[in-house]
Specification:
single chain; alpha+beta; Cytidine Deaminase, domain 2; seven-stranded mixed beta sheet; 24% strand; globular; binds tetrahydrodeoxyuridine
């Protein structure tokens, strides 16, 4: 038997000003996207924004439903919209912001497992690392690729 370990790396920033301009623009888009959240059950607004390699950005937000599982997280709303509306473009980065009553959570909200799996798929489709930026009011985390949020990705049958 051999004991093994997987380490993940990410960068932490104190505020949006510290991000590089491309990431800052995407972060602002994710924060704006929070206003599109339809969250009558949880009261938790999540905004997500996808940037393509050409700088184009699309946004999504969480959409809840009285039949709870029929609702969808912000990340998947944005990623599915991004792929459906711009099928030939390559995704470069995804930013996520979440909070309640217009306030962003102090610590970044981390994406659910299903959203991580969908991110992995679009990283594969794009053929390049998909950067993920998680925005909190007190700190911002940047992951260079989805693998850092989903070690041992399932990506083949
Ligand atoms: N939610 C997201 O939009 N993204 C996540 O990664 C986790 C949770 C949404 C789903 C639901 O509308 C609300 O947040 C509470 O779970």
């Amino acid at each position: 038997m051999t004991s093994k370990e997987i380490k993940i790396a990410f960068l932490e920033y104190e505020n949006l000003d510290q991000l590089d301009p491309r990431d800052r623009q995407l972060a602002h888009a994710a924060i704006e996207a929070m206003s599109g959240a339809y969250a009558p059950y949880s009261g938790f607004s999540v905004g997500a924004a996808v940037m393509f390699t050409d700088g184009d950005i699309v946004k999504g937000s969480n959409q809840e439903n009285a039949a709870y599982p029929s609702g969808l997280c912000a990340e998947r709303t944005a990623l599915f919209y991004a792929s459906a509306s711009r099928p030939d473009k390559q995704m470069e980065a995804l930013a996520i912001a979440a909070g309640q009553n217009g306030n962003i959570c102090a610590s970044p909200a981390t994406p659910c497992g299903a959203c991580r799996q969908v991110m992995a798929q679009y990283q594969t489709k794009s053929g390049r690392p998909l950067r993920v930026i998680l925005i909190g009011a007190d700190k911002i985390w940047r992951f260079e690729k989805v693998d850092d949020l989903l070690p041992l990705i399932f990506d083949s049958i």
